[in-house]
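Hello,

Our lab assistant flagged a job as stuck in the queue for most of the afternoon. It eventually completed. Since we weren't sure the result was trustworthy after the delay, we are filing this so someone can double-check. Below is the sequence as submitted and the structure that was eventually returned. Let us know if re-running is recommended.
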Amino acid sequence: MIEDMEEKYDGIITYKICEVAMRADVNKETVRYYEERELIPQPDRRRSGYRIFTQRHIDQIKFIKRAQQLGFTLKEIKELLELRVDEKTSCSKIKEEARQKYQDVAQKINDLQRIKETLADLIDSCSEDGPIGDCPILEALEGNSETGRQLRR
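-- returned structure --
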């Protein structure tokens, strides 16, 4: 079996986990986590127990990090990776996934804009001069809460 492993990786550059982490600009725990979540291929192991990583692992980790920067969750990234290796997948399916992520991001931006406007209104409504019992920010956060009214008395 060891001879088979040597044969399998003959002429292929292999890496230890610390080298993969460094080349992919992540930490070792991230590599292990991606392995546990099956986001990267299960690496073979040397007789010593060390994992045998290749450039494919590094490239896939970089793919994951770039997808995360675009807002994809690890679950969504796993789906993309599965689609990527499925011969039946068309580019239109990937485009649809990206379109859905775009819509999700657009909705989040709208939600954040609404929150920003609400916060600006609350800040503008506060004169800073009144007693805490008359604080419009606290009133808005507490709603119709009896507890909040009692605390501000």
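-- support follow-up --
The delay was a queue issue, not a problem with the job. The result is valid. The helical segments are 2-8, 17-24, 28-36, 55-69, 74-85, 91-125, 136-142, 146-152. The first strand starts at residue 44 and ends at 45.
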